[in-house]
Amino acid sequence: MASSNKLRDRYERLLINPTPRVPICLVLDASSSMNIIVEGEVKELDHTFELEGCKVRAVEGGITRMNKLNEGVTNLVKDLLASAEAKDSGELCIVSFADDVKIELDFGPLDDSLKNFTLETRGDRTCIGKAVQIAMGLLQRRKQEYTGRVSYYQPWLIIITDGQAHDLDECREIGRRIREDVSNKKLVCIPVGITADADQTALGFFAENGVPLKLGVDRLKEFFRLVSQTVVQVSNSLPGTVNINVEDLMKPGKFPAGDWNKFQNPAN
Q1: Which CATH number fits domain 19-36+63-264: 3.60.21.10, 3.30.420.10, 3.20.10.10, 3.40.50.410?
Q2: Which H or E run includes 237?
Q3: What pLDDT sits at residue 256?
């Protein structure tokens, strides 16, 4: 009964707000390597711990990769809420991965509570493929819920990692489906490596041209700002009139919302 009521509530929300939707799914690395400090002053402590098989000295202070990622996601939410069109159109889903996969946030309307979203690190492994499989399932379910109730724009799938995939076969398998959907204009997929060590092979399975975006972790805020600006621009159009692919995003002037081709440079 509880499941039935929850589904009914999801349908009713769509009918209450019939604005065409832009579903955005973030698939985010939550492995322990995201705790690596990238800037700021730190103080060494008198104990060590294991980090992905290596013994490291514990410290306090500083800003980590995860801090930067959380800042970017927070700014994405704030920017979308600040737009009258995107606030009603945008729907956010967040899936995290490490040793396991967690649905941190299911699809639903944006609200102020999401401004406080914080992803915590856990585990040493990087199960990208499994996370993307789950994310694609959530996107498919949401599109089915839209059918006959509201129209929708191309869904967005953004995958971000700093490490090496522990499930390369799963990445390869789901990657075939993603590239097909991207080719048929059914999906916008942006795989992103935020360090030079990020798995270009695994991420490449999710890119139509086999080449993922590369950017330093310090550019995550800028990246998410451009995502929000582009989504706002799309939400001001009629569904079906703007079809996005990453290659078009990289063409200067193609999308006035911002200069996407700045992210073609290798990660720092």
Answers
A1: 3.40.50.410
A2: none
A3: 45
Angle of helix 128-146 relative to helix 2-16, nearest 10 degrees, comes to 60
Overall average pLDDT of the 5-21 stretch? 75
Contact between 134 and 127 under an 8 Å Cβ cutoff? The reply is no
pLDDT in tens, 127-182: 999 999 999 999 999 999 999 889 998 899 999 999 999 999 999 999 999 999 99
3-state SS of the chain is CHHHHHHHHHHHHHHHCCCCEEEEEEEEECCHHHHCEEEEEEEEEEEEEEECCEEEEEEEEEEEHHHHHHHHHHHHHHHHHHCHHHHHHEEEEEEEECCCEEEEECCCECCHHHHHCCCCCCCCCCCHHHHHHHHHHHHHHHHHHHCCCCCECCCEEEEEECCCCCCHHHHHHHHHHHHHHHHCCCCEEEEEECCCCCCHHHHHCCCCCCCCEECCHHHHHHHHHHHHHHHHHHHCCCCCCCCCCHHHHCCCCCCCCCCHHHHHCCCC
- What is the pTM for the complete model shown? 0.86
Domain map (residue ranges) of the chain: 19-36+63-264
**CA proximity to 89, closest of 79, 75, 74, 101:** 79
